[in-house]
């Protein structure tokens, strides 16, 4: 009984759950989440349900302490204080400070975040990024490669059930498969009756294959005859060339699917355009051209016809319609066009172009002039068709009456008239169009043409040419009066055009009348010099000469201006014009030694030695103490064999001028004449007077070395080095003396001391490299060269040596380094040219040789060795004309320097040889 009365603890399991029961609510569970649906598996209990459950359990609901807090009010320590204006201002200030601090650090913070993000993405790339290169590679996969990719197999490693079901094959399939490979060797009764060549159809008719073949051949023959134009009876004859028929088939353009799709889309767009705006003429033209491009000429003509109907006042539509049709139809179309747009010049010109007969063209154009009498273009086309000057003159006379404002027609009429009538025409034109500068220029050219038309006395011709200047001046004044202000550049272009057309005096008149316009007084000299240089660069020598002539009238005492004018005449003028310029130059600038020397040299080069002496005598009067003039006189007498006169002039020069260079030239002159003792005496006296002039020690040491007295030569060089330690050539001569004496060690020591005294001298480094090479130390030479390039990284001479010190395969790379470091150095450019020469790139090598000789701004500073290399190149690959051109350029440049040039030029045996002869000797010596 006791067991029966005992309550069952598990009785609740059979009881129904309460209405508001939520499983697991007591331990905080409200639902379940799975991998398939992230989030609650079901909606959790509402707030009311939770509150009711807590109330039933006797729990108090949770109250948020900030639930009733006003967000605008302070709480905590300052909860009881009043929020005043000062507090608001303080909050605003702190907020501004926070913003400023954040802005100050924002750049660094964002840079750091971007860097961390980039590093993270590099370390953890997305799968899409990992396969990006492979995706790009799919663009080049061919169809064959794509088809050869194997099918994906079973990668799940699970056994799949095989479908092992079987089906019964019908007997008909087996019998048919069996008979597929068999041959029938017998005929049935029907086939035997017909011979096996006729097959009755279902309706009882008999098919004759022989007749079908014959009919096919006949049709093909007929089509070919029609295409070749032989079938005239059918009325289908065409102009197809039978010989070029297959060739024309090859020229047919096959459009791709993409192009066809583009054409269809464009057709839809244009169709929408012309339907939405049928009065838009460009839309009709574009639609017609699209059909033309697609090869549908009929559709194109139909569209452009609709365009002409919709836009009858648009000339472009009519012109496009005429273009799309043949010649006869185009004439009809343009005839209709004239009815709608009779004022269109293009329509009339197109109609005239369709006519092949000149008379028909004239008829069309004259009809056009009836409708549009004020069209200059129609008048010009009409005049051009006239073969008779008389008829053209009549037409132009009528044209200028109808269109008096057309300058072109007035000028054309003036060109057809006689000179007297042309003046009258131009006067009428000037009154009709007072704002045209072309009429005034034409008047000046007419006067110039009359002045040179016949043989006239010089005074009369000059008088007539002076009228050209007056006409142009009057024209400029009249244009200014009518507020027509052309700029200097425009007038210069007109002057250049006149020169190009042969009107030199008109060109000069334009320059004289307008070159001073729009220039400040202090800028005139520089502006005119730049204008002259620009004109000469363009090839307009007459303009440059006129500018310089005007500038010389304004600045007659400017030596550089006279020098520029003389150079211009020397390059582009005659001997007479050059002589006249130099004579005027020395008259206005008697103290300019260079102008006297240029004049004397030109006289001497022309073979007029007495005139050169006379010029130098006049120069002595104006510049009695000029060193250059004294030396020029000595050189003139020495070159012409007057040695005693030259020696006497040197004695007088040492007395009058008494300069270090005159003493040096005196010693050189005596040395050239073999008077070594006299030369040494002269040098001894000169060294006492000018102990700081290094060339005196050089010549003294060379004379001692020539006599075989090495000790005296060594003493001369030592004294010179002591007096002039900064002269590089003295150090080099002393080193070569020791090297010639077999003392290479002492030569190296001297060059080391020289580099200490003259740091950064590339010539000394080059000489040190040469010493090592001549002594047989190629490895040591490379080391010295590397050290030299470290100290002189921009030396073209050292870079050139470095290029040739490299093996052949690496020379090109070395030359690229040299061009980057040394830039536009002539030695580097010459080395590059020689490399291209070795590679048989002839034109490129010639271009680089031209760059090498033009690298120096002063032509006399160019190296003679480079000219000799260029001449040697042209001897091997150039024509005689190219060789002669190189020699002429070298003579005009007058080179003076070079490792090979100077020893040959200063050799006593080559004393009186010309630049051409020295150049030939140097070219032969190079290797």
Question: Explain this structure to me?
Answer:
Mean pLDDT is 80; it is low at 35-41, 200-205 and 230-239. The chain is built from 49 helices and two strands. A two-stranded antiparallel ribbon has the order 1-2. It is mainly alpha-helical and 927 residues long. Helices cover 68% and strands 0% of the residues.
Short description:
This protein is mainly alpha-helical.
Give unreliable regions as ranges.
35-41, 200-205, 230-239
Task: Name the overall outline.
Answer: extended
Strand order of the largest sheet: 1-2
**Helical amount among residues, as a percent range?**
55-70%
Element layout with pairings:
Blueprint: H1 2-5, H2 47-57, H3 85-123, H4 127-130, H5 132-137, H6 143-147, H7 171-179, H8 189-194, E1 199-200, E2 206-207, H9 209-228, H10 245-250, H11 257-276, H12 281-293, H13 297-310, H14 315-324, H15 327-340, H16 345-354, H17 358-371, H18 376-385, H19 389-402, H20 407-416, H21 419-432, H22 437-451, H23 458-481, H24 488-500, H25 504-514, H26 524-538, H27 541-554, H28 559-572, H29 575-588, H30 593-605, H31 609-622, H32 627-639, H33 643-656, H34 660-672, H35 676-689, H36 694-707, H37 710-723, H38 728-740, H39 744-757, H40 762-774, H41 778-791, H42 796-805, H43 811-822, H44 826-838, H45 842-853, H46 864-877, H47 880-893, H48 901-905, H49 915-925
Helix pairs in contact: 11-12, 12-13, 12-14, 13-14, 14-15, 15-16, 16-17, 17-18, 18-19, 19-20, 20-21, 21-22, 22-23, 23-25, 24-25, 25-27, 26-27, 27-28, 28-29, 29-30, 30-31, 30-32, 31-32, 32-33, 33-34, 34-35, 34-36, 35-36, 36-37, 36-38, 37-38, 38-39, 38-40, 39-40, 40-41, 41-42, 42-43, 42-44, 43-44, 44-45, ...
